[in-house]
Amino acid sequence: MSDIQSKIEQERQQAREACEVNGNGSPECAAAWDAVEELQAEASHQRAKDTNKNSLQQYCDDNPEAAECRVYDN
What we know:
By secondary structure, the chain is mainly alpha-helical. It has 3 helices and no strands.
């Protein structure tokens, strides 16, 4: 997750530079901030995936060999 956060920071810096060079109303500035928003959305989706697990799923992730976590094929 820290990798995506560092990428977000890089994109923010590039967006600031694009807006400084081309102006706040320029298409380049808008596109740069759109890229930042896309990365932030992806980071949010990744966090949501991790928090959507119930306690049994979290336990089984940590203890896959536990009897409660066995998966049987029919």
